[in-house]
Predict the 3D structure of the following.
Amino acid sequence: MTSPVATPVGAPPGSAPPGGAPPAIDTRQLRQALGRFATGVTIVTCIDAAGVRVGLTANSFNALSLDPPLVLWSLRQASPSVAAFRGAAHFAVNVLAESQVELSRRFASPVADRFSEGIWSAGQGGAPVLTGAAAVFECASVQAQDAGDHVLFIGRVLAMADLATPPLLFHGGHYHLLGEIL
């Protein structure tokens, strides 16, 4: 089976891009350009097959659908946590508040017990939920889809919380606070 090829708008289906193959993209430059898009910061959590809490910092979170309520996030295929999330029936997306930058750093590093900081409780399916997060989405795992060097995880929102507190932001490789409303 061959991979689908993107067809330029207005070109006949199946036609090659103008000039043949698309130019190679420098991954360093791509990462830098993608960093211009400001995101929130999350800690995504689950319980692995042995009942151990698993969590990591991610900024690849997004809404997918309101009806049904679906969210998505992605994780590098090479991540040591990918097997736990593939096997989990539930996961939680904890949207970090501005005051939780140190938790973000902790869950982005190879600390032995990431959950020893913060106040955690068991959410849907046991997925750890962070007290004081700006928002929390407790999800049933719906699909894990390989996409390039990442896995896209789609979850159906079963429960949520919204503290209406300013979220932590990430932009250009740095943490930021939410600015004034324009």
Observations:
- Residues 1-7 have pLDDT under 50 and may be disordered.
- The helical segments are 27-34, 82-87, 101-107.
